[in-house]
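> example.struct
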């Protein structure tokens, strides 16, 4: 979706957390929310973790690369803390800014 929005010159809000470098995913009309530099696991560089928590497939090497700070809450899937730190209000404010023009 990100690349399609860029190709058709449409605004896009990217929620990146701290997994990938922000410079890899920035387009002119994209608004990027990230948490790089806010917690120790992505303080100076991206963490590149493969999963938030281990999956049932115990033979998968991706289970060796899991999030340092998974956020678990009742009734929902686990998310990385870096993603949970991005609030709905931050996204709403950008949407309002985009559509106020």
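> example.seq
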């Amino acid at each position: 979706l990100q690349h399609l929005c860029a190709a058709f010159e449409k605004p896009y809000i990217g929620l990146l957390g701290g997994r990938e470098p922000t410079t890899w995913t920035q387009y002119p009309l994209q608004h990027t929310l990230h948490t790089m530099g806010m917690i120790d696991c992505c303080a100076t560089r991206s963490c590149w973790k493969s999963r938030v928590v281990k999956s049932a497939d115990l033979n998968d090497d991706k289970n060796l690369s899991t999030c340092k700070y998974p956020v678990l809450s009742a009734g929902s899937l686990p998310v990385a803390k870096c993603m949970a730190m991005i609030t709905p209000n931050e996204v709403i404010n950008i949407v309002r800014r985009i559509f106020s023009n």
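> remarks
The longest strand covers residues 12-17.
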